Amino acid sequence: MRAAIITIGDEILIGQILDTNSGYIAKALDKIGVQTVEMVSISDDKTHILNTFSKFQDQVDLVIVTGGLGPTKDDVTKKTFCDYFDDELVSDPKVLAHVEDLFEKFTGKRQPLLQTNIDQALVPSKATVLFNHFGTAPGLWMQKDNTVFMSLPGVPYEMKGLIDQEIIPKIAREYKRPYIVHKTILTYGMGESLLADKIAGWENNLPEFIKLAYLPSPGRVRLRLSARGMDKALIEKTIEQKVHDLTAIIGDIIVGFDDSETIEVMLGKQLTQKGKTIATAESCTGGKIAQVLTSVPGSSKYYKGSIVAYHKQIKTEMLGVRPETIAQHSVVSAQVAIEMAQNVKKILNTDYGIGVTGNAGPTTDDTPEEIGVVYIALATPHETVVERFNFGQPREKVIDRAVSKSFEMLQKEVLKLKD
Amino acid sequence: MRAAIITIGDEILIGQILDTNSGYIAKALDKIGVQTVEMVSISDDKTHILNTFSKFQDQVDLVIVTGGLGPTKDDVTKKTFCDYFDDELVSDPKVLAHVEDLFEKFTGKRQPLLQTNIDQALVPSKATVLFNHFGTAPGLWMQKDNTVFMSLPGVPYEMKGLIDQEIIPKIAREYKRPYIVHKTILTYGMGESLLADKIAGWENNLPEFIKLAYLPSPGRVRLRLSARGMDKALIEKTIEQKVHDLTAIIGDIIVGFDDSETIEVMLGKQLTQKGKTIATAESCTGGKIAQVLTSVPGSSKYYKGSIVAYHKQIKTEMLGVRPETIAQHSVVSAQVAIEMAQNVKKILNTDYGIGVTGNAGPTTDDTPEEIGVVYIALATPHETVVERFNFGQPREKVIDRAVSKSFEMLQKEVLKLKD
């Protein structure tokens, strides 16, 4: 079962917008045993789209197209589908009613639609229409010989809704697929070359149906084993055995196996399970810790809130950081981070408090510390720990690394808790 | 001058890693007048890579390949280049010396290299070698007929170094290219359909060499004009005239022209210029308003901070929302939003205060309001305005739209100020 993903839009080809849709779709397909063999981004150009369709016809089973479905003139996907399938556009009454509902809900009153909105309900007459709960442009499903072509809107949350609620269940129902297992082994502290050298013998003995990939990032290498086949039991048993063998060789640098869960989701589960709560006091991260924590549905169970003390005065007035502490150590200091963590924990009455202060850059605050330096303090029921980091530049990287470091510090503490 | 970008790596095709390289390269090419006609991601499979090379041969002038150059076995790009160019690998002494230097620097001592690292210095004998300052794998430049094929490492900062320091200067030196102008017009507060309807006449009169694209995001639409041609003066003059004509039609919703300027950057400039300050009180947006405002360097001049009152109790205890207000109107109500905005403005002593309360979903709070409903209040020096929205679902969309709506409300007020 093979798929190709096509993204349509000039804005991607000039680098103005990053294509995040293809990766989302590929991941969802992979989970149900469909192999993505190619991802392509092309412009809103009918000939180019038609040529790309022809190239994939007979080469893959599924072609998923995103983008080019909006109400305006630069969107050509629906017309191109009509050309390719020798079809014509007709108005779909169910989609039209949905478009009317969405506009009524948004504006608070029933009103005549613009022609461009009425046209959103136009679909190729031979298409199976997939309902888009989150927007006006419907999904389309059309088959030619053995290849199905699907069209989805390019807006990420609309695309995601259609993939999760319509496309994936439909493929899972209608097609027999091989079984795919990925196992990721997270290693820390050894370079890619040395690691490859160390496990060369093990790697050479992997069976044909298991592929190994090295995914290096600063400080760590993830090893990904991918197995594919119809015999589920054999695949699972072989992967398990191979991971066992690998652990005997490099067990000392393996830190984990699950690649799919973000740290904020894991933290959420652990905090919920253990009935603990958290509050944050943020300076240089400007609310990003709060934003990432609250991006998890159900986070109100363990996350009480944040004081984003962007201005020095707020640190003293709202957070109760002592002016003497700032005067003596400067606003970017271990002492200020500690008082922020302890005080926010006390004020919001939680089990844990995180306090972050630093120089995100590009300019510096009234402090002797250089740009990129961040202090993170974590107040627990028993003690307060604080760490100093220098994340360098740019600003964005300083903020992101401060957010993940604070989560790592919190997780270390949470893992110590008994159930 | 046309280019294609190929990304090699299974990790992209299973959605484990997002391809950010292609967008970076496309943007750099676009700036020097090279048009990217297609981006492709394929697996580490020699046959598939060779087929893709053949497809682009004669179709484009430049083919830029990233990925598949590391020291481990899953990397096949160099061998495939040898196949395609009927060439063989030879050791490059300059690259080998560089690899030795890098390891010495990293480990602090000169030591024998592993075979996998020695092999990093192998390059096709006919290739022009491009020096990689930030890593061991060099860039390659090879020509067949009229098409140049380039290979770059997949690690983003190594790829960026080669693009900025080697590839772009070399293309700019060796090729004659057309002139490209993009102009982006930022509009706020009008939907894509209505906007398209309003400017249809203007759009139909655009000359052949100017393309228009609509780039909608929650609450706003960017219009992008792209012109391409050899006559620089004509292109620039025509774009200028067309923007002037457009301003006559929709001047009231145009908020800026620089695409690098987001609404938070514009707000920052306006608030700084007018010497005004702002504070926020967030519930369902969970700190995202703070995070977006503070993503702007220099935001500490006008942004004092936020109280992220994720838990009901924080709203009353820290923000001073009256318990009777919550009891009478529920936590998701105009009255609560108003008190949040007014109180945070007072507590943090600012000119403006924003208060946001709503049901982001997927589950609902203790309120009769449905999921997706958000109240946003803006307290100004003279009055407090409040608006009710229903952003539907999913959660991500509710949060993003609430953030942009609050910025729109603030901008409307800020624009009223006299200089």
Automatic annotation (TrEMBL), chains A, B:
Alphabetized Gene3D superfamilies for the sequence: CinA-like, MoaB/Mog-like domain
SMART domains: MoCF_biosynth
Pfam families attached to this UniProt entry: CinA, CinA_KH, MoCF_biosynth
Chain ranges of the MoaB/Mog domain: 4-174
Family: Belongs to the CinA family.
NCBIfam families in UniProt: cinA_nterm, molyb_syn, PncC_domain
Name of the protein described by the UniProt record: CinA-like protein
